[in-house]
């Protein structure tokens, strides 16, 4: 039901939308100053994901209040809730209230689109706004028995779609900046690549496009290295469906097994100098993420049949966001490097994540 928004054809149209969202968001920053990078990434990720994956009519409903509601939902991502999800804890009450408000918002959007399409159909007209987003896919989806999804089910899936990548992508996008801005030598390589691909020959840049972003290898190396050093998911769990015999042990069906990207990606045998920020370890010459070398130790998006289907979108989204940011601002970090915060199910950086910025071309 959701794969229709994750095709190459869809991605081609997403890049310009993401760049536009970045420019609109950072208009509020002015020409120079200091700001919290994590707060900016949280809003940008949800704004760009909603516009590209769910459509402009969903994006137009989003504001700072919606970002707050998603933050309230995040409060429910604590270890205890995996065992006792309905405990009457204050954070769970806030979580449930936010879920209800978001559901009402998305049901409203759904009804408006359905009413517009029904009106056009009654008038014998075609839809002038051809929708290829996931909302359209969900509205037309059916179960195996032919039953359509209810409004509440569609709204729930819309909430989940944004929720699934919001926290992980905003966290990774923040670590991207925290690491890259502290490595001036590699930042210079990234900017040289931006000039080579998008430079207009006059000191500026042409608009971003899918082909160009796909060729931004340095940006991809940085993102891969950030995901290695600070994977947002510190453990990936699976249920054993049948008895498994392994190293003279029996893992019985119904058991849970887990791997930790936070541990495996710091294995010095696969990744020399594992604690060092070294994006070029992912270049074709070194290819330290190849399964031949690390035997599956690099798994920020999981592995096997249940690997995250949103991985290509996450790369496109974060690379495009940072290409647009770096072309717009000169940036430097403020204060010492932020440390990981392991208090929730997503490994966030300790906040605030302050950066100092100066617009390359004043407003």
Automatic annotation (TrEMBL):
> Which cofactors go with this protein?
heme
> Transmembrane helix: present as a keyword of the record?
no
Q: Does the keyword rRNA processing apply?
A: no
Which SUPFAM superfamilies does the entry link to? Cytochrome P450 (SSF48264)
Q: Which InterPro entries match?
A: CYP450_sterol_14alpha_dmase, Cyt_P450, Cyt_P450_CS, Cyt_P450_E_grp-IV, Cyt_P450_sf
Residues annotated for heme binding in this entry: 308
Basic and acidic residues: which segments have biased composition? 278-293
Alphabetical list of CDD domains matching this protein: CYP51-like
Q: Which keywords fit this entry according to its UniProt record?
A: Heme, Iron, Metal-binding, Monooxygenase, Oxidoreductase
Pfam families hit by this protein: p450
Q: What is a GO molecular function of this protein?
A: iron ion binding
- Region of interest called Disordered, as start-end residue ranges on this chain: 274-293
Similarity remark: Belongs to the cytochrome P450 family.
User: Could you tell me which PANTHER family the record lists for this protein?
Assistant: 24-HYDROXYCHOLESTEROL 7-ALPHA-HYDROXYLASE, CYTOCHROME P450 FAMILY 7
Name of the protein described by the UniProt record: Cytochrome P450, family 51 (Sterol 14-demethylase)
Organism this protein belongs to = Fonticula alba (Slime mold)
């Amino acid at each position: 039901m959701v794969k229709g928004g994750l095709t190459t054809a869809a991605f081609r149209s997403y890049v310009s939308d993401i760049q536009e969202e970045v420019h609109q968001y950072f208009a509020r920053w002015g020409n120079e100053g200091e700001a919290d990078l994590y707060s900016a990434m949280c809003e940008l990720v949800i704004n760009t994901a909603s516009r590209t994956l769910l459509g402009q009519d969903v994006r137009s409903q989003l504001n700072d209040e919606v970002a707050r509601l998603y933050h309230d939902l995040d409060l429910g991502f604590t270890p205890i809730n995996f065992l006792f999800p309905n405990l009457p804890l204050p954070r769970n009450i806030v979580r449930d209230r936010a879920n209800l408000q978001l559901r009402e918002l998305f049901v409203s959007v759904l009804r408006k689109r359905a009413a517009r399409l029904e009106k056009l159909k009654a008038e014998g007209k075609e839809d002038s706004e051809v929708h290829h987003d996931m909302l359209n896919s969900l509205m037309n989806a059916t179960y195996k028995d032919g039953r359509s999804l209810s409004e509440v089910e569609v709204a729930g899936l819309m909430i989940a779609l944004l929720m699934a990548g919001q926290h992980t992508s905003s966290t990774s996008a923040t670590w991207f900046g925290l690491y890259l801005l502290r490595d001036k030598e590699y930042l210079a390589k990234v900017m040289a690549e931006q000039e080579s691909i998008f430079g207009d020959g006059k000191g500026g840049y042409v608009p971003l496009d899918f082909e160009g972003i796909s060729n931004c290898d340095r940006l991809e190396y940085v993102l891969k290295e950030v995901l290695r050093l600070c994977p947002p998911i510190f453990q990936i769990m699976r249920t054993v469906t049948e008895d498994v015999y392994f190293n003279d042990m029996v893992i019985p069906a119904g058991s849970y097994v887990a791997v930790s990207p936070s541990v495996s990606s710091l294995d010095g045998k696969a990744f020399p100098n594992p604690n060092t920020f070294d994006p070029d370890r992912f270049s074709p010459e070194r290819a330290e993420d190849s399964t031949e070398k690390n035997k599956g130790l690099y798994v920020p998006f999981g592995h096997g049949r249940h690997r995250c289907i949103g991985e290509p979108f996450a790369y496109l989204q974060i690379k495009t966001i940072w290409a647009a940011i770096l072309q717009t601002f000169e940036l430097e970090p403020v204060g010492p490097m932020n440390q990981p915060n392991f208090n929730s199910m997503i490994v966030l950086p300790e906040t605030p994540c302050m950066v100092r910025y100066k617009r390359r071309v004043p407003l």
